[in-house]
TrEMBL record:
Pfam families: DsrE (PF02635). InterPro entries: DsrEFH-like, Sulphur_relay_DsrE/F-like. Gene3D superfamilies: DsrEFH-like. This is Uncharacterized protein. It comes from the Bacteria.
């Protein structure tokens, strides 16, 4: 979709949309908009129409960082907050996060994380947000093919993370079960 900005086209891609959403979160504008929507102050803000049995699968395979954690995990947490601000209970959310490829190491315990990053003093800062997501009912899943490629075992993986046979068949299965697909790039 193209939008004209002073006679210059602006390509609206998922990356651009995510960038603008992150600005809303950083500057607190998102909460202001959600408060305005909930108070009825502005009738032109569209809120969630489907409020039951919301199914989402995130495809995360890029090693990008945001606020000191994996960027994909950051945005999954933001999605939970967005639904919460619109009054959608966690019990209506079915979110699976399928991590594979370059992002796979985000789901490692500290010792294998240190070996992977070649830094004996590093700590996996993703561990806390992964546990928060799991505590909120998100299914955090790691591709077994990615694990095999790096020589990781189930003992190397953070508690609560599920291991799936491979990322692609898992995401296809979830999509065929009605999950909305979000490719995080």
């Amino acid at each position: 979709m193209l939008v004209s900005l002073q006679n210059r086209p602006l390509l609206l891609t998922a990356r651009n949309v995510l960038f603008f959403l992150s600005l809303f979160f950083v500057f607190g504008l998102f909460s202001s908009f959600s408060l305005a929507a909930s108070s009825g102050a502005s009738s032109n803000i569209i809120t969630v129409q489907h409020q039951k049995d919301i199914k989402v699968v995130y495809d995360i395979n890029q090693d990008q960082q945001q606020a000191g954690i994996g960027k994909g995990l950051y945005y999954v947490r933001g999605l939970l907050e967005a639904y919460e601000k619109q009054g959608i209970p966690e019990s209506q959310l079915h979110i699976s996060v399928v991590v594979h490829g370059a992002a796979g190491y985000w789901l490692l315990k500290d010792e294998p994380y240190q070996m992977f990053t070649n830094d004996p003093f590093s700590v996996n800062r993703n561990a806390k947000v992964v546990q928060e997501l799991i505590d909120h009912g998100v299914s955090v899943e790691l591709c077994h093919v990615t694990m095999k490629g790096h020589g990781w075992t189930a003992e190397d993986v953070l508690p609560g993370v599920k291991i799936v046979f491979d990322a692609y068949t898992r995401m296809i299965d979830l999509q065929q079960s009605g999950y909305a697909y979000i490719k995080f790039t």
